[in-house]
Specification:
The chain has helices spanning 2-18, 29-36, 72-78, 80-91, 104-118, 124-129, 167-170, 187-202, 219-223, 249-259; strands at residues 41-45, 48-53, 56-61, 64-68, 95-97, 100-102, 155-158, 176-182, 206-212, 231-235, 241-246. The protein is globular, with a radius of gyration of 20 Å. The chain has 2 domains: 2-91, 2-Layer Sandwich (Beta-lactamase Inhibitory Protein, Chain:B, domain 1); 137-259, Glutaredoxin (3-Layer(aba) Sandwich), CATH 3.40.30. β2 (48-53) and β3 form a beta hairpin. The protein starts with a helix and ends with a helix. A 5-stranded mixed β-sheet has the order 7-9-8-10-11, with helices on one face. The chain has a 4-stranded antiparallel β-sheet with strand order 1-2-3-4. It has 261 residues and is of the alpha+beta class.
Length: 261
């Protein structure tokens, strides 16, 4: 661990001294990886490959850089230390949950506790008869704990057992699409859901697509690098993600308004 930390420290110091290479329009995919390393996540939307880094998004068409998020280089350089720290935490098998790096089992235990607290209190006998919650969420919660179905025609819910989902196929052409990765056992997801429905109800240019991840090991969770939920991502009418994934309603609202410009 000390050797790894020393390696990152020396690498960051070297980049700061020599000047980190900037990604330019026209660079190849291999060149981007050589300069910035592996992305945090990536997606292909309508033929455009999107690479998501701490500094923003880099888009490629035909394996050539076609678009770089404004201010990307400055943000990426500012967050170099943080990126190294995050890589080190992930190497330990930890995940980021509500601003803290924790073991996945602890994250699931906290989610279960929140879900239990969000449920209405039951008579003692019924509570004692209920089966004990598993130590790790691998299946959806019982039907009684399921989130209510969307109640607006601009809100779509995808429940496909956690199978892979092609985001390009679910984005609404010409509209702002808010994609919400959620699960029934997630208390914060149930809290946020009616606010997203209202967001779509109040603005005809905004549609919401809710994708049930089922559990952390599902295909869709791994496909889209979902590490904590709710995980909400906003896409503009061109299918380009605006901002980063978040669970903060104020940011979601701000990103949605920015996506309409």
């Amino acid at each position: 661990m000390i050797v790894k930390k020393l390696f990152w420290t020396l690498l960051i110091a070297l980049l700061a001294w020599t000047g980190a290479p900037a990604v330019q329009t026209g660079d190849s995919f291999e060149s981007v990886i050589a300069k910035l390393g592996e992305p945090q996540s990536e997606a292909t939307i309508r033929g455009t490959r999107q690479l998501f880094y701490a500094g923003g998004v880099v888009e490629l068409q035909d394996d050539k850089v076609s678009y770089i998020d404004p201010g990307f280089r400055q943000r990426a350089l500012q967050r170099t230390d943080q990126a190294a720290y995050e890589a080190e935490q992930r190497a330990k098998g930890l995940v980021l949950y509500e601003g803290r790096w924790v073991h996945p089992r602890k994250r699931d235990a906290l989610e279960q506790r929140k879900a239990a607290q969000a449920q209405p209190q039951q008579p003692p006998r019924q509570a004692q008869a209920a089966p004990a919650a598993p130590s790790r969420c691998r299946t959806a919660a019982p039907a009684a704990a399921a989130a209510p179905s969307p109640s607006h025609d601009r809100v779509r819910e995808i429940r496909d057992g956690g199978k892979r989902v092609d985001l390009a196929s679910v984005l609404v052409p010409g509209k702002v699409t808010v994609v919400d990765f959620f699960a029934d056992w997630c208390g914060p997801c149930r809290t946020l859901s009616p606010h997203l429905t209202k967001l779509a109800a109040d603005d005809p240019d905004i549609h919401v697509v809710k994708i049930d991840i089922v559990n952390w090991n599902s295909e869709v969770s791994r496909q889209h690098n979902v590490r904590s939920i709710p995980d909400v991502r906003v896409f503009n009418s061109a299918g380009r993600q605006v901002g980063s994934s978040t669970s903060d309603l104020r940011r979601i609202t701000r990103y949605a308004q920015r996506a309409k410009r």
